[in-house]
Amino acid sequence: MRIAVIGTGNVGRTLAGGFAARNHEVVIATRDPGETAARDEYAAWAAAHPSVELVAFADVSDAEVVANAVGGKVCLEALAQVGAGLDDVVLLDLSNPLDFSAGYPPSLFVKDDDSLGEQIQRAHPGARVVKSLNTLNFSLMVDPEDKLGETTSVFLSGDDEAAKDVVRGLLTEFGHRDVIDLGALSTARGTEMWLPLFMRVAGALDTLEFNLRIVRS
């Protein structure tokens, strides 16, 4: 599968490396490829992942799946640069509307009656947006059971059933065995609003390496 990952931070590199290790054709996109390539942290990662091409946002094309791994504050701007490259594409959205302007822990700049996932869908009506993987730390997005030692839960929100099936398959490849379909994209309001509690749990536990597990009767 041809996959473009938007964003070269921890989330983007984790996803791109995970997809490449599973034999997908992967590019990773950034605002300024030259500046990104010159960073020591990115250069070390790129040397270990030679099959992943670095491109500019505007040069993303011909992808079947685009993964939005850019921070919530800037993701709409970044996706606007991808533009027509998002038409009829499964857009896996991992962003969260975190606002750190008043310090830590952050508040949300979208909540209750809207979500960042829905804003992305409105901005790109030709895309097939699926919200997922925004409820856990990047270190647990790939092979989570290797790190946690047990099965935990991830969620899907989206209006396109076929697109959700594609994302479900990718999550399964990453080792997620409990994938819960919450329903329409509007349900992303719930997973995005988990983040304030996530931050407080992280503070109480002094770690980001934890996840939800939904236990059924």
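Above is the first protein from milestone M3; the second protein from the same milestone is given next.
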Amino acid sequence: MNETRQKSGSVATGPVKRGPWVVTVQIPKDPTTGGLSRGDIREQSRRVFEGLKESMREAGGSLRDVTLVQVFLISAADWSAMNEVWAEYFTEAPFPERATIVAKELARPEMLIEIVAFAYVEAA
């Protein structure tokens, strides 16, 4: 697979793979409706990390291959709850580097979180 992209409005979902490098952007999509999750920060965090897990599977890897995650939150008060959910998904070393950015707003008003993840997936 050289590239997998599905467009959701103007946002590509699914991994983009170039050689061993994978880049994916995840928004809090509801797996039942395909629309945005309107849950609290814990629910939305689970949606983005589940999306990341699925994107990594599609790219032939796993969460252990993730090297860097940029997390965008609209409130610094959501950091602790997001971090608790993060710990459910990233359970063993090596852990990815992470930058958490608090933004005034994201592309859609109902979004509390968005992530950009980078991974290195070696050929099988």
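Note on the second protein: Residues 80 and 86 are 10 Å apart (CA to CA).
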